[in-house]
Every structure is written in structure tokens, then in C-alpha cells.
Amino acid sequence: MKKNGFTLVEAIVVTTLFSVLTIVLLESIVRFYSINSYTIAQAAEVDSARRGLELIIRDIREMTFADNGTFPLALMGTSTIGFYSDIDRDNSVEYVRYALLGTTLRKYVYNATGTPLTYSTTTPDETIIVSDNVRNIAQATSTFRFYDDTHKLATATTTVTDIRYVAVQLIVNVDPTRTPGEFTIRSSAAPRNLKTEY
Questions:
Q1: pLDDT of the residue at 197
Q2: 51, 145, 150, 175: which has the fewest Cβ within 10 Å?
Q3: How far apart are CA 98 and CA 130, in angstroms?
Q4: Separation of alpha carbons 167 and 139, rounded Å
Q5: Is residue 63 domain-resident?
């Protein structure tokens, strides 16, 4: 009479082989993530910065005169920009400021209040982290660049009413001591609602 099935020795051998293969596979996965953790983190941060840059450009493109009549662009600096825009499409214009502080780029939103309408920039109504690990300051590189209607880079004597074009650049790196190094993302916008004649 023929018996089917595993003997005790065969069952031990199969169980041992399965255990060894499982351990080898798990160690390979752990090794992959430990070796490539920087690359994975860098890719995630670059994707986050790219989405943040799209948000900045959309808001800049839609800048408009404030509800109290103030010119659309209010603040320009190498690491900051402040302007008026209806970012939430509610027919009420907000004051928006993007600022790179250290390695974190933040968006601050201020709503108009009172009669007559005013914009208090003491405490933002909303604060959003646009991107972490931005290395522009460490690389001595401007985050924001401003150009007039003749396509000349703004100087110390350029006023906000002269600006017609804004370029944005983010240098991203989750760990500056490791390669492949910084990843630079650039974009630009010409605000739609700026008038060339007053």
C-alpha cells in the first residue's frame, strides 16, 4: 500500500528552506530601503517641491488688485514675495506671502477684514508648508527674481509697480552631505492682471 504526503524529515527540510528564503527576502528588502532611503526621500521631496512650485506659480499668475485698491504686488525679496490674489476663488482677495525661512518655504494667507477693508499681517489666517529641505539660502541663490516690462532684472531702485514677470527657483536636497546632491526646480509667471499703463 502506497502512502502519500511528507515524512517528518521532508516537512522539516521544507519548513527550513521556506524560513531561510523568507529571511533572505526580508533582509534584501531592508537592505534595499536602507541603501536607497536617501534616493527615495529625495524623490519624494522633489515631487513635493514641484507641486509647491505649481501652487506658487498659479497664485502669482492670478495676482490682482486688493479689495482696498492696493497694487497687486506688495513685497519683493530674494526669499519672499507678497501679493494680493483670490486664491480660493471666493470673490474676496487675500494677501498672500511666500517666505523661505531657513530650509522651509511657507505660504501665509491673510484675509481682508473691517470697514473699510484692511489686511492685517500680524497673524496669518492660514499657514501652509509648501516645501521642506529648500537649500536656496545655503547656496546663496534667490528663490524669487523679479523683472520689469523690458525684461530687466529688478534692482534696488525698481518699484513693485514696475514688475511684470516673476521667476521662482527651488533648490531641494534632503541631505546636503550625500550625492546625488541638489535638485533645482524652476518656473515663472507673468501676472495676468498687471497693467502696463496707469
A1: 46
A2: 150
A3: 9
A4: 17
A5: yes
Domain count along the chain: 1
Contact 74, 84 (CB under 8 A): yes
Full domain range(s) for residue 157: 39-189
Q: How many residues does the chain have?
A: 198
Half-sphere exposure of 78 (CA within 13 A, CB side): 9
Q: Please check whether residue 65 lies inside any domain of the structure.
A: yes
Grid coordinates of 177:
552631505
Element (H, E) at 98: strand 94-101
Element (H, E) at 75: strand 73-76
Q: Is residue 91 part of a domain?
A: yes
Q: What is the mean pLDDT of each run of 10 residues along the chain (198 residues)?
A: 71 88 88 74 84 93 90 92 90 93 94 87 92 89 92 86 92 75 88 65
Task: Specify the pTM.
Answer: 0.77
Residues 6+ apart with CB under 8 A from 110: 94, 95, 96, 97, 119, 120, 121, 124, 125
145 lies in some domain: yes
Report the candidate in 165, 145, 164 with the shortest Cα–Cα distance to residue 155: 145
- Distance between CA atoms of 185 and 133, rounded to whole angstroms? 13
CB neighbour class for 141 (10 Å; exposed up to 12, middle 13-18, buried from 19): middle
Cross-sheet strand order for the sheet of 183-189: 144-148, 163-172, 183-189
